[in-house]
């Protein structure tokens, strides 16, 4: 089972204190109660990695010494923690080809500049990579504001439970977004595709930074049997959807 309560640990490597503080603040703004370690250069960063369990390394090579680049190379080469993600800020684009596999896997990410919007979307991808540990019956899924979780018409592979944040459902009719309703904390998301065994019937978009429990659709029956509180949450979600559908019908 995924550890739902374990907080992610971050290691920020930057020789510039202001940038180090800014990166820390970005993380705090978008991830609740993170564990944050810092290092001023790559050698100290490697030392921290020997003494602490780190989920995501953020290497600010714009303001760091060459050993910060070597640290990233060493971490990726040795791959001692296969589920640890690396975010590199300001890495020369020509070097991306050195780690094509890591880029495709989602282990390595590049951020061109220290912009919060760009950073948080990259952070979400890194968090999702670290959360998919094996073996697990379910995982944690992270979304940044405006991320689309589900697209209408696509095949359903997962069902979700919203742990934090807020989402909404909508259809697109004649290029216009028709809002169907909000998804609140504790509700299931994408449950109709599981029940009906049909393609997705709506888009689901994040209204805020959000965290969900992601359940493979072929595991839902087994997990609901083992977790009565989730079965109750599913019933409450379906009841809300039915009530909302009836209200819409009456208004027409």
Lay out the secondary structure:
Layout: E1 9-13, H1 17-30, E2 35-39, H2 42-51, E3 56-60, H3 66-78, E4 85-89, H4 100-105, E5 108-111, H5 116-131, E6 139-143, E7 148-150, E8 158-164, E9 167-173, E10 176-183, E11 188-189, H6 191-196, E12 203-206, E13 210-216, H7 220-226, H8 228-251
Parallel strand pairs: 1-2, 1-3, 3-4, 4-5
Antiparallel strand pairs: 6-13, 7-12, 8-11, 8-13, 9-10, 9-12
Helix pairs in contact: 2-3, 7-8
Write structural notes for this entry.
- The protein is α/β, with parallel strands linked by helices.
- The chain contains 8 helices and 13 strands.
- The strands form 3 sheets. The protein has a 5-stranded parallel beta sheet with strand order 2-1-3-4-5, sandwiched between helices.
- Helix 7 (220-226) crosses helix 8.
- The longest helix has 24 residues, at 228-251.
- The N and C termini lie far apart (45 Å).
